[in-house]
């Protein structure tokens, strides 16, 4: 799933590619992806692209005062095409294509979504806050107003909730998903199940530094890369996420995996949990 660093890099890459272009046509191949009807999709035809920005994990293409906003969800991606086919795409359950944006020079974007679980969303709105998911976002962890005091307030408010869930909840902190929450907690040497409000002042400082450094470094590595290179860059630099069964790059212990919410998390027992494996609580409930 694209998270803050990848969406930030996508915005930078697409901003340079779309600059000075007009949107000629938008073809929707997966009708379930379009979540709005006013303004109509046709309102974007002939508009000039003014810029591309990010709100959490939402990608925002602004064109002549309107906003084409994309949430790529679990398996979505944006692919640049120097030349798009002249024949409009037909809806098909066998294709990964969800939306095609055609520019005035016949170049464009293919927004794709792999897998059968279709969650990719596209909105055409007059302002970003018209998208419910953007209106409910928590603070961006890389902005200047995301201070250690603000993090302390968030953790205190979340009480006994587990750090893993707090970090990846978009209404609490924007942009961090399953992968980077694993990476942040590994960098901070903290258990994913540690209660949010149970941190000492030293642990709070460690977690804050881990958030800013992990995300900031990922953004720096991604800056300047083309969209086609971003997935590979992310996977190459992950320490524990998706690395179950491999060696921890810090201590050499075996990275373990455990079910969490609707997915799974990965962690190093030596670095994060005092050498003790975490209980798979989702499996435990099923066995009762």
UniProtKB/TrEMBL annotation:
<keyword id="KW-0862">Zinc</keyword>
<dbReference type="Pfam" id="PF06827">
    <property type="entry name" value="zf-FPG_IleRS"/>
</dbReference>
<keyword id="KW-0227">DNA damage</keyword>
<keyword id="KW-0234">DNA repair</keyword>
<dbReference type="InterPro" id="IPR015886">
    <property type="entry name" value="H2TH_FPG"/>
</dbReference>
<dbReference type="InterPro" id="IPR010979">
    <property type="entry name" value="Ribosomal_uS13-like_H2TH"/>
</dbReference>
<dbReference type="Pfam" id="PF06831">
    <property type="entry name" value="H2TH"/>
</dbReference>
<keyword id="KW-0326">Glycosidase</keyword>
<dbReference type="Pfam" id="PF01149">
    <property type="entry name" value="Fapy_DNA_glyco"/>
</dbReference>
<keyword id="KW-0511">Multifunctional enzyme</keyword>
<keyword id="KW-0238">DNA-binding</keyword>
<keyword id="KW-0456">Lyase</keyword>
<feature type="domain" description="Formamidopyrimidine-DNA glycosylase catalytic">
    <location>
        <begin position="2"/>
        <end position="120"/>
    </location>
</feature>
<dbReference type="InterPro" id="IPR012319">
    <property type="entry name" value="FPG_cat"/>
</dbReference>
<feature type="domain" description="FPG-type">
    <location>
        <begin position="239"/>
        <end position="273"/>
    </location>
</feature>
<keyword id="KW-0378">Hydrolase</keyword>
<dbReference type="InterPro" id="IPR035937">
    <property type="entry name" value="FPG_N"/>
</dbReference>
<dbReference type="InterPro" id="IPR000214">
    <property type="entry name" value="Znf_DNA_glyclase/AP_lyase"/>
</dbReference>
<keyword id="KW-0863">Zinc-finger</keyword>
<keyword id="KW-0479">Metal-binding</keyword>
<comment type="similarity">
    <text>Belongs to the FPG family.</text>
</comment>
<protein>
    <submittedName>
        <fullName>Fpg/Nei family DNA glycosylase</fullName>
    </submittedName>
</protein>
<dbReference type="InterPro" id="IPR010663">
    <property type="entry name" value="Znf_FPG/IleRS"/>
</dbReference>
């Amino acid at each position: 799933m694209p998270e803050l660093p990848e969406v930030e890099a996508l915005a930078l890459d697409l901003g340079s590619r779309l600059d000075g272009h007009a949107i000629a046509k938008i073809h929707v191949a997966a009708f379930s992806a379009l979540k709005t009807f006013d303004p109509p999709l046709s309102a974007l035809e002939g508009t000039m692209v003014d810029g591309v920005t990010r709100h959490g994990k939402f990608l925002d293409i602004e064109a002549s005062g309107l906003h084409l906003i994309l949430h790529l969800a679990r398996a979505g991606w944006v692919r640049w095409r120097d030349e798009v086919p002249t024949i409009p795409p037909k809806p098909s359950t066998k294709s990964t294509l969800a939306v095609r944006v055609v520019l005035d020079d016949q170049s464009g974007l293919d927004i794709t979504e792999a897998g059968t679980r279709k969650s990719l969303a596209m909105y055409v709105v007059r302002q970003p806050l018209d998208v419910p998911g953007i209106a409910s976002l928590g603070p961006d962890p890389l902005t200047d107003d995301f201070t250690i005091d603000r993090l302390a307030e968030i953790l205190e408010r979340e009480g006994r909730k587990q750090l893993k869930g707090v970090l990846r909840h978009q209404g609490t902190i924007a942009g961090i998903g399953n992968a980077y929450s694993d990476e942040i907690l590994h960098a901070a040497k903290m258990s994913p199940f540690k209660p949010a409000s149970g941190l000492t002042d030293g642990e709070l400082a460690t977690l804050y530094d881990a958030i800013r450094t992990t995300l900031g470094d990922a953004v720096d590595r991604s800056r300047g890369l083309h969209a086609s290179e971003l997935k590979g860059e992310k996977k190459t630099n992950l320490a524990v996420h998706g690395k179950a069964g491999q060696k921890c790059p810090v201590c050499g212990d075996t990275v373990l995996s455990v079910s969490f919410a609707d997915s799974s998390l990965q962690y190093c027992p030596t670095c994060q949990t005092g050498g003790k494996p975490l209980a798979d609580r989702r499996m435990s409930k099923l066995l009762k």
